[in-house]
């Protein structure tokens, strides 16, 4: 008799268990370490933009919706055909790195839903690329101002994305493809510029060396003029006599005739 009373409760418990098991995917949800989520309460306050669900296992009412965002840095590649300042077509490959601001994903969902990358990020970046590259010539983009173009595109994209709670990390121009004729002309011009710079360097070096030699020669000439102006016949005779006396002390000297040399200088005879 007691078993008959308990049996309905057991059956009811089994039914409840299987019902809960079937609804578990609608009740329990998991947020990974690189994710955040917002909940839309259909029969309540709607979207609470400032409540961001943190990583872990969570419960919700089956009728509420959970929207999960990846908040780690994301990279997207884009291939584009743009026009330069002169209207020349350029094909560019770019990479943009970005991530949503984790505690603002509720605001992102309110404006762009979960597809914010396709609705916001990519269109804004492509627009900035076209606008910025339209201010430069193909030669500048291809050679001298590539880094400046990258920085300007990032700066202009960043203004819009930051205003919509997306952090712009970096923008890189991976490759630039020009029509072959234009590319060859630019490369030839750059090569000629490098050759001209090398020639100018050699020319400047030779001018510097010539100037150095001129200054050295002028210094030497001035020194000789000073020496020549200080030499007199009497001084030369005195120096000659001093030198002769020193030589006379040598064991090889035999005869010294004083006053018999040219200009009255002593004369040394004998060389044994």
From TrEMBL:
<dbReference type="Pfam" id="PF01145">
    <property type="entry name" value="Band_7"/>
</dbReference>
<keyword id="KW-1133">Transmembrane helix</keyword>
<dbReference type="InterPro" id="IPR000163">
    <property type="entry name" value="Prohibitin"/>
</dbReference>
<protein>
    <submittedName>
        <fullName>Prohibitin family protein</fullName>
    </submittedName>
</protein>
<feature type="domain" description="Band 7">
    <location>
        <begin position="26"/>
        <end position="190"/>
    </location>
</feature>
<dbReference type="InterPro" id="IPR036013">
    <property type="entry name" value="Band_7/SPFH_dom_sf"/>
</dbReference>
<feature type="transmembrane region" description="Helical">
    <location>
        <begin position="6"/>
        <end position="31"/>
    </location>
</feature>
<keyword id="KW-0812">Transmembrane</keyword>
<dbReference type="InterPro" id="IPR001107">
    <property type="entry name" value="Band_7"/>
</dbReference>
<keyword id="KW-0472">Membrane</keyword>
């Amino acid at each position: 008799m007691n078993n008959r009373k308990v049996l309905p409760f057991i059956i009811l418990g089994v039914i409840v268990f299987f019902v809960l098991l079937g609804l578990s995917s609608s009740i329990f949800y998991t947020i990974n370490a690189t994710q955040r989520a917002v909940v839309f309460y259909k029969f309540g306050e709607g979207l609470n933009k400032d409540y961001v669900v943190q990583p872990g296992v969570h419960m919700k009412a089956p009728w509420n919706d959970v929207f999960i965002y990846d908040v780690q840095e994301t990279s997207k590649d884009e291939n584009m055909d743009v026009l330069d300042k002169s209207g020349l077509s350029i094909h560019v490959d770019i990479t943009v790195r970005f991530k949503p601001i984790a505690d603002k994903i509720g605001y992102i969902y309110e404006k762009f839903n979960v597809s914010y990358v396709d609705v916001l990020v990519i269109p804004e970046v492509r627009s900035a690329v076209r606008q910025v590259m339209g201010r430069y010539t193909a030669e500048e983009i291809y050679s001298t101002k590539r880094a400046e173009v990258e920085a300007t595109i990032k700066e202009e994209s960043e203004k819009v994305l930051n205003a919509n709670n997306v952090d712009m990390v970096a923008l890189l121009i991976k490759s630039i493809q020009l029509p072959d004729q234009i590319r060859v002309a630019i490369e030839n011009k750059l090569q000629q510029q490098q050759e001209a710079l090398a020639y100018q360097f050699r020319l400047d070096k030779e001018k510097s060396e010539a100037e150095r030699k001129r200054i050295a020669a002028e210094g030497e000439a001035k020194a000789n003029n000073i020496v020549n102006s200080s030499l007199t016949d009497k001084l030369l005779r005195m120096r000659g006599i001093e030198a002769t006396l020193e030589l006379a002390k040598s064991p090889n000297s035999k005869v010294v005739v004083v006053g018999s040399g040219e200009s009255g200088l002593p004369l040394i005879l004998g060389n044994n």
